Amino acid sequence: MSNADLLQDPLHLLRLAIANSTPPVLSTSTSLPPASLPAIPLHLATHLIFRVPTTAAFPLSTPTRFHKKEGENPGPVDLRSIYFAWLNKDLAIPEYVALAQGFAGQAGAAEIKNLVFVERLELVGWLEGVQEESEFIAPIAPAQKEGEKGKGEGAGGPGQGGIGGPGAAGGPGGAVSSGPRPPRQVDPRLLEIYSHERVVVNRNTALRGSKPMDFSYVRKHTEDFVSRLKNNQSISTPLKPGLPNSTTTPAHHLTPKPSGGLTPSKPPSRTYPIILLSPSASALLNMSNIKPFLEGGNFIPPGSAQASPLSTTAPQMIDISRLLPSVNPTTPQRFIVVDSPEKFKPEYWARVVAVFTTGQAWQFKGYKWHNPVELFRHVKGFYVGWEGEAVPESVRGWGGGVTCVGVDRGRRFRDREVCEVVWMEIERWMAAGGWGGVGGR
After folding, report:
1. Is pLDDT above 50 for 256?
2. Region 269-286: what's the mean pLDDT?
3. Is 406 exposed, middle or buried (0-12, 13-18, 19+ CB in 10 A)?
4. What is the structure's pLDDT at 340?
5. 391 or 209: which carries more pLDDT confidence?
6. Residue 319 β-bridge partners
7. Burial class (CB in 10 A: 0-12, 13-18, 19+), 368
8. Residue 340, strand partner residues
9. If both were cysteines, with which of 47, 214, 250, 326 could 431 make a disulfide (CB 3.0 to 4.6 Å apart)?
10. Cα–Cα distance between 434 and 342 in angstroms, integer?
11. Long-range Cβ pairs for the range 43-49 (8 Å, 24+)
12. Can you give the pLDDT at residue 82?
């Protein structure tokens, strides 16, 4: 492919303009619009003008080398649809499809060819220079251009059936035409080799296939399966002496101790990380709904009938298990959740990894660190509020140690996303703090 061919290819010029950070200009004619006028929108423009390496204008209806292989209108994609896909490369699939379908409804707008996810991915990757080839982009055939050039030369030569002589258009001494070229003979052995060829696919096509597939449901089913498996194992496994295994364990049993039996060898002591909740009545997460939220990503409003009622006989401590690969890639980590440090021993503060707050400073009155700024330098902080509501200024002033997350009021499928954000921050904090091994530091 020669440089002259490349300079006549709008797809190559668009890639060159993106690489040089010199975007093309939309226009209603073949000349550049005045700089003082506002930019012309795509649905009103008729030409796309490139400024590098030279100024070149192409009609937006020009077919390009990019070919659709699926959908309603397979074949070459026009320059308007290519430029539309590049301008909206960051949109999600539903938004892109809706915008492409609504484009033709605008006044004076032409139809946009909708590119599927794989086609958009290949086009954007090629335009940005991430990949040099694509199965959707056809190369310029040099042999075809040479054949067209030979036909043009033959038209200006002699017109007497391949016999030399003065040409009608070429005049004396013109080019000698040999007539139409004979059909090319292909070796049968070469045809046999071609019959065993296979299409070379790239990484994206091999992994994703011809259609985008959403495998997020596999992750959900896997988590449910692992959760049921852990519950069955905890029921079938007998309790070891001194290891609390009930959510009704009193708060003063935060550190499990082996029973004073006659066995000379005592089991090793485990230190479980502690999560502190806010005792405030306005807290969205409390002892009634923290377990289904952290274990299953299911948020139950604290005042609803589904939440377990809080009473004087309610457990003061809750056990929660979670697999944290950065801390222990094989064994789920056990956490102890309480809402008050009233029965804490001094050494328990080294095990506190997270504190949930509502932004009220009185919560930290009985803490080891009364100042919230100092507190969240030693433990990870979380503020859980409603999605769309402003975060209190007091929380913003406590520094970057507090992560603010929002719970949606109605869309419960968003609860899993918020839960994963909380666990991701806790895991990162514990890994940086030296937590590891089975059950402790």
Report:
1. no
2. 84
3. middle
4. 86
5. 391
6. 336
7. middle
8. none
9. 326
10. 26
11. 43/103, 43/106, 43/107, 43/108, 43/109, 43/110, 44/108, 44/109, 48/10, 48/24, 48/79, 48/83, 49/24, 49/25
12. 93
Whether 397 shows a pLDDT value over 70: the answer reads yes
Tokens 């056809």 identify what position?
A: 138
Structure token pair of residue 268: 């090793």
Indicate the pLDDT class of residue 359, thresholds 50, 70 and 90: confident
| Measured CA distances, 144 to 1, 27, 68, 138, 148 (Å) | 11, 32, 22, 13, 6
pLDDT digits (tens, 9 = 90+) for 294-314: 988 888 888 775 555 544 445
